[in-house]
Amino acid sequence: MYTGLEAARFGVYVHFPYCLSKCPYCDFASTAAKQIPDERYTQAILAELSRRLEAHGAAGREVTSIFLGGGTPSLWAPRSVAKVLDAIGQQLRVASGCEVTLEANPGASDAERFSDYRRAGVNRLSMGVQSFEASTLATLGRAHDGATAKRAFDAARRAGFDNVSMDFIYGVHGQTEAQVESDARAAVGLGSEHLSAYALTLDKASLAEDVPLAKQLARGEVHLPPDETVVRMQRLVRDVFAGAGLQRYEISNYAKPGFHSRHNALYWTGGEYLAVGTGATGFVRGAEAVRYSNQRSADRYLAEVEAGRVPEASREVLTPFELFEERVAMGLRLVNGVDLEAVCREFGQSAEARGQTVRHLVHARLAERREGRLALTDAGFDVHSAIAARLM
User: Fold this and answer.
1) pTM of the full predicted structure?
2) What is the pLDDT of residues 199-240, one digit of tens each?
3) β-strands 253-255, 247-250: how paired?
4) Cα–Cα distance measured from residue 44 to residue 48, given in angstroms and rounded to the nearest whole number
């Protein structure tokens, strides 16, 4: 059982929206661009960062994680990444050992930049491999092949990265359980410190935009494996990763001891994160708990920043009950669970009112009580959303 989870308490997320092509399953704020306005976008990030820090009174705070996501941040010029990291360091106190992650595509041109990113201050790479299988990659619209992904991992090692994560997707149209197991074995064979494996989700209620693959599903042009097959795929992944010494610490995430994602753990444990860039979503707590989201259009984002405005598309003040809901739902994604009584006290909710539900979950072996925390079992993870809803 994984219990050594350390989360960042305050982080910075920087979103880079540009890609060479748009994957048909991706609902992140991203856009395919033949020419990337590198310097223009970098200057916009620097301007928004200063405005955000001033608006939230966050200048000088200690930051323990920085995450550059996308889009495809490995298309961003390393000198520009260095400028952004330097600006963060000048306006915030970057903690010793701060986790600095950059998401990367495993394409050959991206891998050529890895050494430069390391020199810029990035100390963790998160590579979007998704699969080593040609048919799965084709369905997902990925441009690389399995051999290229493995070469990119080797390039990351040569560049000096000793903390490399890889992402995988299962439950894809036409994908077999044998292929999922093959992906998992190939992944652990490389020796990555961290692996993530997500079931493909095309439910419109869960997507920020109506992606092409979801439209194909609606038209009957593709078919996802049945739920019971997806569960077996997940258990195959879990068992292969565990056999290689990777500890499951969250529903979809596995790591060698000490190599869990501190930035993602920040989200799961209720930490704060300042977010800048196209489509970025941030969460800060002052007199009020505020979540904001930026414009999802890169052009609109740039126009807003260059006009001297904060590029928000939405802002909401979260109520104590909404904070409670999120804290429980996110905490139950973790293997070590959530201190339900402490969370109830923090947000003015009744632990007693949920006592019967907890007892039923434990009796059904969907959850366990461990050192004052409520944690889901493997069977509980399979129905996490339903359990979280019951506890609301």
Assistant:
1) 0.93
2) 998 887 676 778 888 888 889 998 999 999 999 999 999 999
3) antiparallel
4) 6
